[in-house]
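User: Let's play a game. I give you a shape written as tokens, and you guess the letters that built it. Ready? Here's round one.
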């Protein structure tokens, strides 16, 4: 895959430059555009990835106390176009072992073609349903980033106390979970408040941060600056 030329890179700061479009059994439309000098993955009704401009995780990572935590491994539930490992390596300069779960092989192909491959970011990817993966996987991780959406909806199976307990099981003793949720409308806020009651049962020291229109739930608020 060739890098967009200077003309395209300049134009991308004014409008989205179409790159490719395909479909899969899991997504009727997967559209990659080049925008503001970055690749963006768009599905029906949602942006799945936007490099370091994927602001909800970027804001959360900026508040994370990296010097105190020093994570060496990261599990990503919902790879998208690889924004999370790309951001951690390219923006925050972190060298970690990355493992990801992505149900859609077409999404993994796009991530490897346009982001991870060209930047030589190594990610071990499991093609699986994230909730099922949590039940059988035996790894241990310093960070877990949950970013699983079907369009703009989180599957019910990822929001249960059982799923959260499985995430806790995969965290190392000092590990931290990031759980991304939409918070655009009043209905979202009500759902998030209900989810918070479940979240606190599993992670008593947890809480959430407002991150550019989303709520980022985290398993330990003390690992973040105010």
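Assistant: Ready! My guess for every position:
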């Amino acid at each position: 895959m060739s890098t967009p030329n200077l003309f395209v890179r300049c134009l991308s700061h004014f409008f989205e430059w179409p790159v490719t479009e395909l479909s899969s059994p899991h997504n009727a439309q997967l559209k990659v555009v080049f925008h503001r000098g970055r690749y963006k993955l768009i599905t029906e009704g949602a942006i799945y990835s936007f490099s370091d401009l994927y602001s909800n995780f970027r804001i959360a990572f900026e508040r994370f106390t990296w010097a105190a935590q020093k994570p060496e491994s990261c599990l990503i539930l919902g790879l998208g176009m690889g924004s999370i490992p790309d951001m951690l390596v390219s923006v925050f300069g972190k060298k970690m072992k990355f493992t990801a779960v992505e149900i859609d092989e077409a999404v993994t192909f796009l991530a490897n073609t346009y982001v991870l491959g060209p930047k030589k970011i190594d990610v071990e990817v499991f093609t699986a349903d994230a909730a099922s993966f949590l039940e059988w996987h035996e790894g241990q991780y310093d960070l877990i980033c949950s970013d699983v959406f079907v369009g703009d909806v989180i599957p019910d199976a990822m929001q249960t106390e059982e799923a959260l307990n499985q995430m806790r099981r995969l965290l190392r003793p000092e590990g931290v979970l990031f759980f991304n949720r939409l918070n655009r409308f009043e209905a979202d806020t009500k759902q998030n408040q209900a989810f918070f009651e479940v979240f606190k049962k599993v992670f008593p020291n947890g809480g959430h941060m407002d991150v550019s229109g989303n709520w980022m739930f985290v398993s330990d608020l003390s690992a973040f600056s105010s």
